[in-house]
Amino acid sequence: MNTERADAARNRIALIATAREMLTDVGIDKITMDALAERSGLGKGTVFRRFGTRSGIFMALLGEGERDFQERVQSGPPPLGPGAEPLDRLIAFGRARLRFLQENRDIARAAFDGRATVPFGPPTTMTQRHVRMLLHHMGIGGGDLDILAMQLTAALDVPPLLYTPPDDGARNEQAFEDRLARGWEDLVRRLIG
Amino acid sequence: MNTERADAARNRIALIATAREMLTDVGIDKITMDALAERSGLGKGTVFRRFGTRSGIFMALLGEGERDFQERVQSGPPPLGPGAEPLDRLIAFGRARLRFLQENRDIARAAFDGRATVPFGPPTTMTQRHVRMLLHHMGIGGGDLDILAMQLTAALDVPPLLYTPPDDGARNEQAFEDRLARGWEDLVRRLIG
């Protein structure tokens, strides 16, 4: 059992490292389950067990990058970190999350695949959990907080992944990100009435 | 020019018909750009020009199904159709949209692909346009209505595509859809304060 777990952990580390190499060497579009299995020298079965689908590879890569971000949310300075009012934290979280998604856009887009579905249950992603907790602290009750957190997470995460500014220049990217951040602030302020 | 347009329209109709046949005969996972080109007897170039990406095939299929739905929204009985208060129409729209996505779930999921991005501009989908119009009629102004409509469209469309109830049974599907519909109602009621 322990050996199996150690093997699984070693495989996971090796696969993530190989995927990162491939990102630099061959580009994101060439990273497939088959190509990853071949380059890593591990069996296809191992890759499938580890990631499930192609998007699972990128969810794992995104998760690695998310650790730093999570650290800042959980113990960094306010208003993103603890110590500010929940509404201010929710607004700051939206802005920081949009920044994070923009910085990791190619990976985040590849992680986002309609064919992979997530069983609905208690919030599984950091964003859903954090949004839910802040809504709860803001005293938004009565409704279905799990669903509200899920809907707000979609409202926050999906636009920067699905839409691009008309011209892909850096200035337009920044202007679009700013509009999304102001839109998020507007949305959550309206929510609390 | 006219001949070119007529050719394009004929190709489009042929490709959609072939994709529908393939849905029944071989199943959704086997529908790829290559397989569609082969089965339709049209060149790969034609398929790529028409749909852009694999998800484009399913966006086209979903669009066909959306016509009926759009008809009900634009000229059916209230509160989905015209004649009810904008808030009631927005709530009814959410419930009907969730039903539509549930009924077309496999196609809608396949249409939803992080690799395809949409240039951001004036609302392009029927959902965004309709939500934006109702928000405007509800007197929600001051903020950025294009962005708010985009965020609310994500909040409405994405959860039923990305999440599945823990057990895939029909009763759980219905219960999940109902929770999403109540969540949508709760969200828009909070928005108008």
TrEMBL record, chains A, B:
Keyword entries, A-Z: DNA-binding
Pfam families membership: TetR_N (PF00440)
PROSITE patterns noted in UniProt: HTH_TETR_2 (PS50977)
DNA-binding region(s) in UniProt: 32-51
InterPro entries: Homeodomain-like_sf, HTH-type_TetR-like_transc_reg, HTH_TetR
Claim: Membrane is one of the keywords in the record: no
Domain HTH tetR-type per the UniProt entry, residue ranges: 9-69
TM annotation in the entry: none
Domain of life: Bacteria
Gene Ontology MF terms: DNA-binding transcription factor activity; transcription cis-regulatory region binding
Keyword DNA-binding: yes
Listed name of the protein: TetR/AcrR family transcriptional regulator
